[in-house]
Design brief:
Length: about 325
């Protein structure tokens, strides 16, 4: 299909289509006469790009989406928050300009403007009015990232109902500390989000079908030993324990008890059963070593051992490759301070 027909089908100008070609977002076939020939797949992508651009997404963000399609929700939520901040900043500028216009005389000059006290000018960005019109939906994005291993299902009406319940469970657990986790997640790159999600997905899928769990018990013991020696990991854990890790643990515990995730994806129930065995065997091994006391001491006793599946051992099992542990120590300090 030639560019003129593509322009009619997509509502995009020829200039815009050429721009997206030059940016590498689509790669139409180039004929001998130097005309582009567009496939149905490329028209579909152009329609997607058109929607993204109409929603305020930058070209760079759109490129990230196509480079890491599984992280689409993350990029959309990040753009949503960035756009809110930009609008709040524009409102500040608008109100500052309004104040100047109402204050200077009709024949005002730059001298009159320069005499205005700076303290009257708004500099701090206040998103409260924007938040009233468009409340934060970060809980949705965080839920998707935390449950990345269990998101690969065909969604129907009942699963949509379950998802709303799961989403509300997380919203309840993070009611006081959501902003901390949100700040942390938005410091991550698409690569980090993708790698963490893939790692968790592979881990849980392998775990669910594993015939023997010895290697996972070994892995749990390795995680404990590493935490006892890695001071940066210890600092991350202690900073995150109350505002992030404890709500995550309570979220999994609550939604697990309600059987919501296991109904959303039966893989979750299989993983839970396997984790229960791993934790039980780990506790037996720990009883024969000094690692338990070492771990408690190096974490300033911000760790609880129990036989519940979704406990601090579960957090430790997934901690090293988790989305929040991917953040730098400086970013974590900034978020929790």
């Amino acid at each position: 299909m030639r560019i003129q027909e593509v322009s009619k089908k997509t509502g995009l100008s020829k200039k815009a289509i050429h721009f997206y070609v030059n940016e590498g977002l689509i790669q139409p076939k180039k004929c001998e006469n130097n005309y582009y020939e567009f496939s149905d797949q490329e028209i579909m992508i152009l329609n997607q790009i058109h929607l993204f651009r109409m929603s305020g997404l930058s070209i760079q963000t759109i490129k990230e989406i196509y480079n890491y399609p599984a992280a689409t929700n993350f990029f959309l939520h990040r753009s949503f928050n960035q756009l809110k901040m930009e609008i709040a900043e524009k409102i500040n500028q608008l109100e500052n300009l309004e104040m100047i216009l109402e204050t200077i005389p009709p024949n005002g000059t730059p001298v009159d403007v320069g005499q205005l006290p700076l303290v009257q000018m708004k500099s701090e960005i206040d998103t409260s009015r924007i938040d009233q019109m468009h409340p934060s939906i970060d809980e949705r994005m965080i839920t998707i990232l935390l449950l990345a291993p269990f998101m690969h299902v065909q969604v129907d009406e009942y699963k949509t109902y379950l998802w709303d319940k799961i989403f509300n469970d997380l919203k309840y657990q993070f009611k006081d500390n959501l902003s901390i986790l949100t700040k942390l997640i938005y410091t991550l790159s698409g690569t980090q989000i993708r790698e963490s999600s893939i790692y968790q997905f592979n881990l849980m899928n392998e775990l669910a079908s594993a015939d023997t769990l010895d290697k996972y018990v070994d892995y749990m013991m390795d995680c404990i030993a590493q935490m006892c020696t890695d001071t940066e990991l210890q600092q991350k854990w202690k900073l995150l324990y109350l505002p992030v890790l404890t709500p995550v643990k309570n979220f999994f515990k609550r939604t697990s008890e309600k059987k919501r995730i296991s109904q959303y994806n039966p893989l979750f129930e299989q993983c839970s059963s396997q984790l229960a065995i791993i934790i039980n065997q780990t506790l037996k091994r720990l009883a024969e070593t000094e690692l338990q006391n070492q771990l408690l001491n190096c974490l300033d006793h911000q760790f609880t051992f129990s036989e519940d599946v979704y406990n601090d051992l579960f957090l430790l099992f997934t901690f090293h490759k988790s989305i929040y542990a991917q953040c730098s120590l400086q970013d974590i300090n900034n978020a929790v301070s």
